[in-house]
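Comment thread on ticket #2218

A.B. wrote:
> Attaching the input chain for the structure job we discussed in standup.
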Amino acid sequence: MFALRRIEFPPPSLSAFVALQCLDILTTMIGLRLGAGESSFFLARLMQTGPVSALIVSKLFAAFLAASALKLRRPRILVFLNYWFAAVVTWNLAMIAIAGLRH
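C.D. wrote:
> Ran it. Output below, let me know if you need it in another format.
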């Protein structure tokens, strides 16, 4: 029979999480300045109140998720969040590159 192998996850990194949040803010602001739009429906609606307030709300939510993961001793959630925000930053960089090519 096949034995199920437990998938090895990298250790959760709070410093990577903070760095990715900063990169997300930076790339989002640059993208918006270059004319890129917000892809997330939720954030696009929040952007109607202003980009800074929308980013504050989204970062507070991200911090809540990370803090909850640490408090509940669910490190895989923080690892997942790091992968998720790495993908978001990559997406933002792609949108910056596309917006830059248009100008």
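A.B. wrote:
> Thanks. Noting for the ticket: The chain has four helices and no strands.
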